[in-house]
Amino acid sequence: MKKKLILCLLPLGLLTACGGGDETADNSGDKPAAQSMIEEDAPADPKGIGEVKHVELNSPLNEEMVNKGREIYDLKCSACHKLTDMRVVGPGWKGITDRRTPEWIMNMTLNVDVMLEEDPAAREMLKECLVRMPNQNLTQQDARDVLEFMLKNDGKS
Ligand code: HEC
User: Fold this and answer.
1) pLDDT tens digits for 7-16?
2) d(CA 75, CA 77)
3) Most buried among 27, 37, 50, 73, using CB within 10 Å?
């Protein structure tokens, strides 16, 4: 685990190359479809690629799911993702629910390998970060709980 972490942190020296913390990182996330610098015939699907086709959002947020999501985050995501807009290994999560659709977020979480190969916005991030997010083996419910936590972190209610 330690070793893995060190490996992941190595690209820290490249923070600037990774767009670390500055606004360009946020802006680039705004329009995953339009932003594609890769020449591909099919336009990007704002829902990403994977099994998640439609997410029903809760209003108000389900606090039990928020808490489960937070636990999963602490355990499996916090080493690489901060809750601010600061990039560490991966992008900070602040504002992520405004930049991305709920389906895209869940597909990125559950189907990261395919997303990094085929989704233009994900590929763009990989080019900046130079680290492949490892699959965290979450269940669909886990990923949904993490999404609920992200919504909470973005001040949604
Ligand atoms: C070892 C580091 C690492 C861990 C652990 C990790 N990620 Fe990531 N994540 C990344 C990197 C790096 C990226 C950017 C894409 C790339 O380069 O692979 C990313 C991107 C993302 C994105 C897209 C971010 C955006 O701004 O669009 C989501 C969503 C995401 N991760 C969810 C998760 C979830 C949920 C967990 C925990 C279950 C998690 N990640 C754990 C490294 C990690």
Assistant:
1) 334 444 444 3
2) 6
3) 50
pLDDT digits over 80-127, tens only?
A: 999 999 999 999 999 999 999 999 999 999 999 999 999 999 999 999
How remote is the CA of residue 63 from the centroid of ligand 1, in Å? 23
Average of per-residue pLDDT values in the chain: 83
With beta carbons less than 8 A apart as the criterion, state whether 110 and 87 touch.
no
Q: Is 52 a pocket residue for ligand 1 (Cβ < 6 Å)?
A: no
Distance from the CA of 131 to the center of ligand 1, in angstroms? Answer: 9
Look up residue 115 and give its two tokens: 């997303």
Which pLDDT does position 5 carry in this prediction? 41
Task: Specify the residue for token string 């610098």.
Answer: 37
Task: Report CA(23)–ligand 1 centroid distance (Å).
Answer: 18
Residue tagged 């909470």 (tokens): 152
- Give me the sign of the Cα torsion angle 19, 20, 23, 25: positive
